[in-house]
Amino acid sequence: MPSEPSVSAPRDFIRQRIVADRDSGAHGGRLVTRFPPEPNGYLHIGHAKSICLNFGVAEEFDGQCFLRFDDTNPVREDETFVHAIRKDVAWLGFDWQDRLTHASDYFPRLHACALELIGKGLAYVDHLNADEIRAHRGTLTEPGRESPYRNRSVEENLTLFERMRAGEFAEGECVLRARIDMAAPNINLRDPTLYRIRKVAHQRTGEQWCIYPMYDYAHTLSDAFEGITHSLCTLEFEDHRPLYEWFLDNLSLPHRPQQIEFSRLNLAFTVTSKRKLAQLVSLGIVNGWDDPRMPTLAGMRRRGYPPAALRDFVGRVGVTKKENTIEMGVLENSVREYLNVHAQRRLAVLRPLKVVLTNWPEGHTEQVSLPNHPGDDSHGERTLTFGRELYIEADDFMENPPGKFHRLRPGGEVRLRGAYIIRCDEIVRDGSGEISELRCSYDPDTRSGGSGAARKVKGTIHWVHGADAVAVEFRLYDRLFATADPDRGGDYLENLNPESLLTLTTSLAEPSLAELAPGETIQLERTGYFTRDSVDGATALVFNRTVTLRDSWAKLEAQQLSEATGR
Ligand code: ATP
Ligand code: MG
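ok -> structure tokens follow
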């Protein structure tokens, strides 16, 4: 008898909170979230956590999620980032439908709210300059001091604020501040700035405004305007929550959202500050925001990370209030597990070593079939040509190997994947003494799948056929930083990994690699997962190594056994 589906408990404290709010009828049973990036850089893996959380809970609980551009600082922001962010969120698999907004959409309403605060005696125009404001702010142990402009009349403040807006003051000459409490233990409540003057054109509102709202103010009010029920943000905003609530308490707003904080996602060997990522780009340390070594979503896409693997990774990391750093291996495992199931198999040799089968008739070729996926017949199979001149991986031959080496050695035998057992008879060297070619003989009775295939050898290696192999470029990526915590010791730029990219330009692949579209990912058997580069691969056969196979050896052994017994 089928059992009742089990009702699983919510996965994390935020989902528990959402369920509790739904059950108690808070927010009229609605759930509305938002992902609020500032368009001053590309999204990174940390943002993926926030995106999956905000859009994810909206999907799970039949709610809605806004993609809101927090475009309140025209100096740092740019339309190209807006496009990149939209592309990345969509690529991750989320749909904001008609809920794409900008803080700048609300500039008129934000301005009206500022007038309301001034009218209530809760905001004032301050002529102290930035340094003076800082000096007046006090410290964690000392209260702040009140500005001499703090007790201006409402009328004077209204007039001055209108003059600010009209452009009558220079940048930095004055600001609008909330009038809260200069002695508050929480520094965020010591009369925070609400508006500053920036005589810069805004990418959306042009020259319409020369006063721009500060983040805390614009963000809280945007949440209220959009009817956000759960404003999910990272822990550094915990100390800002009293200010968030002060705005909600003191303005007549259509709705009261609640802010809930969770810990940021930190990845080992990675920096995720946008400022630092921007610096890596501007210094030319990487080739743009979408360099496959970057922890940006655009970089990971170009490297071949599937969006489903990133969602899986974020799910494994979970949502808590505890700060921690996740191992790169966790992310790579999510990628590997997904690709192991979905990527088709191909053959290529990274560092080719020529093999000539001396007893193979000149001009003769045979067709061998290989499954495109060992565990899933629906991927079908493909046919490769096999002949007298082949290339194997240089690493698969050793002249003086250690005992356990099951690949090719002088006088030793190995199976060529899907084809015959060969024996190495002779090493040919070039003028400098380097091995340039192996002369081998094949055993005609050992064709894979054939009647004589039951003869066993310990090793199976991959190969390509010389006459129809295609020349490809493989880019092998390693971690961008050499230390797990690149920020430790001050300058993260000192901790770069000098070998984060190794480009191989003499590799050879089976012909079908030429048919892969940019962005397509395959597994090169025994080697790793590779994706045709979406930029340089558009016109040339350039492939990025997505991730190594690492823990595939156990599977390979099994594969070799089944190979030897005729599959
Ligand atoms: P910066 O690096 O400039 O401080 P940021 O990373 O906070 O910026 P935003 O564009 O403000 O960038 O971030 C948008 C949202 O993504 C915010 O809600 C923020 O809390 C969240 N977010 C940013 N970084 C992470 C991270 N590492 N883990 C989880 N969420 C993050
Ligand atoms: Mg931020």
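The longest strand covers residues 421-429.
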